[in-house]
Design brief:
159 residues, alpha/beta, Rossmann fold, 8 helices, 5 strands, 14% strand, globular
């Protein structure tokens, strides 16, 4: 069974104002996508960056889980993700670089990735999902695993 490691790049510690207020939230969109993919027959692990010290904790999750796919799935329920603080984009790019070292395929989904898909692809992502990505993600994973033979250019919502 193929393993999918989900994470998000919103690190509360990188947002000084909200770190001081200590207003964490659970990554609901990321958790929803992970649960949906688990229901489709994939092994799933979750990395929650919210209270992590830095991207090095993502590297530890990659080492521990050894996933076939690293999915950075931003939480569209949270207005902070939509603001895309430049530091969070840098974190996503660092997470992509770290995942590359584990030779897993890297899939990105989020409002910033939708708006700047080319930048994420240039940073090393293999695929960028546009908009709400749960259905696109399962279709993509099924294609990558030979469950379907849908051509990539016919998968709706794939950059």
């Amino acid at each position: 069974m193929k393993k999918v490691l989900f994470g998000q790049s919103y690190y509360l510690k990188f947002d000084a104002k909200l770190w001081e207020a200590m207003q964490p939230y659970p990554p609901l969109g990321t958790m929803y996508a992970a649960a949906f993919i688990r229901e489709k027959g994939y092994e799933v692990a979750l990395f929650d960056a919210m209270l992590a010290e830095s991207e090095s904790e993502w590297a530890a999750a990659l080492e521990r889980e050894r996933p076939d796919y690293a999915v950075i799935y931003e939480d569209n329920f949270n207005y902070l993700s939509k603001m895309c603080l430049s530091r969070m984009r840098e974190a996503a790019f660092t997470m992509i670089e770290m995942a590359r070292q584990y030779e897993c395929q890297i899939i990105i989904c989020g409002s910033d990735a939708t708006d700047h898909a080319e930048a994420y692809l240039e940073a090393g992502a293999d695929f960028v999902l546009l908009g709400e990505g749960e259905m696109t993600l399962v279709e993509l994973l099924n294609r990558l695993n030979g469950r379907t033979d849908t051509p990539f250019d016919e998968i709706l919502g794939l950059a």
